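ok, trying the design again with the full structure, not the truncated one.
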């Protein structure tokens, strides 16, 4: 069995089980409730009629759903049968000396209708395996592109940091060389000025100037 079949079974299985239990319970309650005031055969016909109408309405709803159609009147009748079955169970429970257990199961018909509603919603939103594979491929491609983009950004950021470090190092070296050259130039000018200020240099320059 394929994976989509398992998903379908997960939604339709509880609905079928709940429907069967609620129909059997409704039939039993109708026969017990009406069996004291009428022949049990008549009570059985009433219970089977109630369950049969509900089952027929449900089958017609399912047929419309398989065709991609929907009929509000049929849906309303189906919910009406569910409400009637629930009302029968509640009325029977209230007539018992211990109504708690019967009231605990009185919600089963409405629960069955709700489960069929959930199954119908699943059918309307279910996708084929090909579509799911295509969606998974698209999502994986988007994740791959995002990961590649993040890697490119990190690589560009690392390259920029390396370049800035290199530029900063070169700038520091140039600044250091300029500072050293400036200190040497200042020292040379200082020595030259000291030589010019000396006595021997002054006399030599005076002698040369006079000649």
């Amino acid at each position: 069995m394929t994976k989509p079949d398992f998903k379908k079974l997960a939604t339709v299985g509880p609905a079928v089980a709940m429907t069967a239990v609620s129909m059997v319970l409704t039939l039993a309650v109708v026969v017990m409730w009406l069996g004291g005031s009428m022949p049990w055969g008549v009570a059985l016909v009433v219970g089977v009629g109630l369950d049969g109408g509900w089952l027929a309405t449900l089958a017609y709803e399912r047929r419309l759903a398989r065709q991609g159609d929907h009929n509000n009147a049929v849906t309303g009748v189906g919910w009406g049968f569910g409400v009637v079955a629930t009302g029968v169970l509640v009325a029977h429970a209230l007539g018992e000396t211990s109504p708690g257990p019967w009231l605990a199961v009185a919600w089963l018909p409405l629960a069955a209708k709700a489960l069929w509603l959930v199954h119908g919603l699943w059918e309307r939103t279910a996708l084929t395996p090909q579509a799911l594979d295509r969606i998974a491929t698209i999502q994986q491609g988007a994740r791959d592109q995002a990961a590649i983009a993040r890697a490119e950004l990190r690589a560009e950021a690392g390259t920029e940091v390396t370049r800035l470090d290199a530029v900063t190092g070169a700038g520091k070296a140039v600044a250091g060389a300029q500072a050293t050259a400036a200190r040497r130039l200042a020292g040379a000018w200082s020595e030259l000025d000291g030589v010019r200020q000396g006595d021997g240099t002054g006399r030599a320059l005076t002698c040369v100037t006079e000649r």
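Keeping the full-length input from now on. The chain has a mean pLDDT of 78.
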